[in-house]
Specification:
mainly alpha; 430 residues; globular
Length: 430
């Protein structure tokens, strides 16, 4: 598109909104995903004592879960200021916290250098990542949806939802490039740190875009009417607890699909199926394109048909996909493995995209940042925080079919929650 179109104020506004909501979630999820990949590949041997490889892998996946436990805290903290002070300031601070924590992981010495301090400091920085990401999504999605025209909240809510596949492509691409230029030994000794250090550059780009933002029209009206509440989270607990619980449960299948198809499958594919890391990362890069395709399709459908019908259909297919996991991943065919990854990530995109509109629509404008962000991140505890760890335990105890059962169970939980949520497409916005 010719950038000269930015002379048109309306066009410039839409472009700015799309970029600002998209770039932040792209950077934030890039930071989160490089840790997920590193935890599947090198975090265990680098930051934990020399035990069995299984014990190191489980320990690495536990550090992965730490950030998810911190994310609701970030959602509540940033939601409080986002609902009282404004969306813009919180979006800038959340980006800085996430980027700072990620960059420091790239400098952190391993277990052989500082002993038990290595995993302790790693967990502390993971908490920082979780707090930053916990505050990011709610602000980014409100930036998009609170600027949306009537009838297009689903479509505008798509902008931040495209950040995860883009961030994942950047993360996967960075690790994939390293396989071409570094030996296996060089990668394990120091090469894995480079994607973490590269986060600092991405954060500067994101800050440049976000500092040019103005406040959303919806929050501007809240300020004019002096509608800010003193403690938004307390209001959520007292008046909107049912919506908070259902919104959290509706998110479970999104998270389970993604982190089983990426973090767990990466470890399983390289360690158990003996697929070369370079090749498996390439397969994931192909599969993530299907998630990127599903997001706009599902967002459009959510505006046209409603949020509930789209989520119920996608969730039902996700339930069935759990039964396909064992035969497809263990088929011995690289094509079948790639097809399964593509299927799961397409379904993740299909269940994820409508959430950009649905979760904000569950809450009134004066507590929307807190409500939507907290629901989104509480769902992460249930669907993603321990997903790689539990999947590793399940595959060790009962085989891959049990992991597929975990995916199907997550789908059932979300299906029940979505069924109990009233359609929000035509809900009053302020």
């Amino acid at each position: 598109m010719d950038l000269k179109l930015s002379k048109n104020p309306a066009t410039q506004s839409v472009i700015r909104i799309a970029l600002a909501s998209f770039i932040g979630t792209t950077i934030e999820f890039y930071d989160f995903y490089i840790y997920g990949m590193a935890s599947a590949l090198v975090i265990g041997p680098v930051f934990f004592s020399s035990e069995s490889s299984v014990s190191q892998s489980l320990s690495a996946f536990l550090t992965f879960s730490v950030a998810f436990l911190a994310r609701p805290l970030g959602a509540i903290l940033f939601g409080h200021f986002g609902d009282r002070v404004g969306r813009k300031a919180t979006l800038v601070v959340s980006l800085l916290i996430m980027g700072f924590s990620t960059t420091l992981i790239g400098f952190l010495p391993g277990y052989n250098a500082i002993g038990i301090w290595a995993p302790l400091l790693l967990c502390l920085l993971r908490v920082g990542q979780g707090i930053g990401l916990g505050g990011e999504w709610g602000g980014a999605v409100l930036l998009a949806t609170e600027n949306a025209p009537v009838g297009k909240r689903g479509l505008y809510g798509m902008f931040p939802q495209l950040g995860p596949p883009a961030g994942f492509l950047f993360a996967t691409g960075s690790f994939l490039i390293l396989t071409y230029f570094l030996t296996e030994q060089e990668f394990k000794e120091w090469g894995w740190r480079l994607p973490f250090l590269g986060s600092a550059i991405l954060v500067m780009v994101g800050l440049y875009i976000r500092l040019a933002l103005t406040e959303t029209p919806v929050f501007a009206k809240i300020l004019q009417r002096h509608q800010q509440v003193v403690l938004p989270f307390i209001v959520i607990l007292k008046a909107h607890l049912f919506q908070l619980v259902l919104g959290s449960l509706a998110m479970v299948v999104c998270y389970a699909l993604f982190y089983i198809a990426t973090v767990f499958s990466l470890g399983y594919g390289t360690n158990t199926l003996n697929i070369p890391r370079q090749q498996f990362l390439g397969m994931l890069s192909v599969a993530i394109l299907f998630m990127a395709l599903a997001v706009p399709l599902s967002a459009w459908a959510a505006d046209y048909f409603g949020r509930r019908p789209v989520l119920l259909v996608a969730g039902s297919v996700a339930f069935l996909s759990g039964f396909a996991m064992e035969p497809m991943l263990n088929s011995g065919s690289l094509l079948m493995v790639t097809a399964f990854l593509a299927l799961e990530l397409f379904l993740m995109g299909a269940t994820f995209a409508p959430m950009g509109a649905l979760l904000p629509e569950l809450f009134p404008s004066e507590v929307r940042y807190t409500g939507a962000g907290t629901a989104y991140n509480l769902g992460g505890i249930l669907g993603a925080s321990f997903a790689p760890y539990l999947a590793q335990r399940l595959v060790n105890e009962g085989g891959l079919a049990w992991v597929g059962g975990y995916v199907s169970l997550a789908a059932v939980i979300s299906l029940v929650a979505v069924y109990l949520i009233a359609e929000t497409r035509n809900s009053r916005w302020i």
